[in-house]
Amino acid sequence: MPAPPDKTADKPAAGPAPRVHLETPKGEVAVTVEIVATQPKIEKGMMFREHLAPDAGMLFFMSREHEWSFYMRNTLIPLDMIFIAKDMTVAGIVHKAEPRTETLRKVGKPSLYVLEVNGGWSEAHQVAPGAKVRFEHMPPGLPTP
Q1: In what helix (H) or strand (E) does residue 76 lie, and over which residues does it extend?
Q2: What does DSSP say about strands 56-66 and 27-36: parallel, antiparallel, or unpaired?
Q3: CATH number at residue 75
Q4: 12 pLDDT tier (thresholds 50, 70, 90)
Q5: How far apart are the C-alpha atoms of 140 and 109, rounded to whole Å?
């Protein structure tokens, strides 16, 4: 995987928690996120975690827009992977990725960000490709739209 931006994003910031807002047919939904923007943290991702709060997630800041793929090695819980394009729309979603598998999951479209949430979250909230996305309270130093 290529190197991500050289930023300070993995350090928790004081103040409001970072959030990702997604537009749905029922209105906007939000997820409080952990920011991942350094190579070691991108490689580890959600590995070895036994729980993820219902409206929490992990937001990956990738180094460039690309057709990224992820696997679930050492990931203990099912996840939805929401791939977000540079234009801040949902490029595609991998639903309920099976834990502890090495099958590459991708959506076949370029993305700059990937949001991981609990498996089934996207369907429950009617998040779909094309949905508008916005970030709130992101740490300084990140390449945000």
Answers
A1: none
A2: parallel
A3: 2.60.120.1140
A4: low
A5: 28
